[in-house]
Amino acid sequence: MKTLLSIFLLLTFGVYAYSEYTPSPEEFSEWKEAAANGDAKAQSALGYMYTNGHGVPQHHAEAFKWYRKAAEQGHANAQYMLGVIHANGNGVKEDKVQAYAWYNIAATNQPLSTRSNIKKDEVAEKMTKEQIVEAQKLSREMIKANPKLLAD
Question: Residue of 28, 92, 106, 139 with fewest CB within 10 Å of its CB?
Answer without folding.
Answer: 92
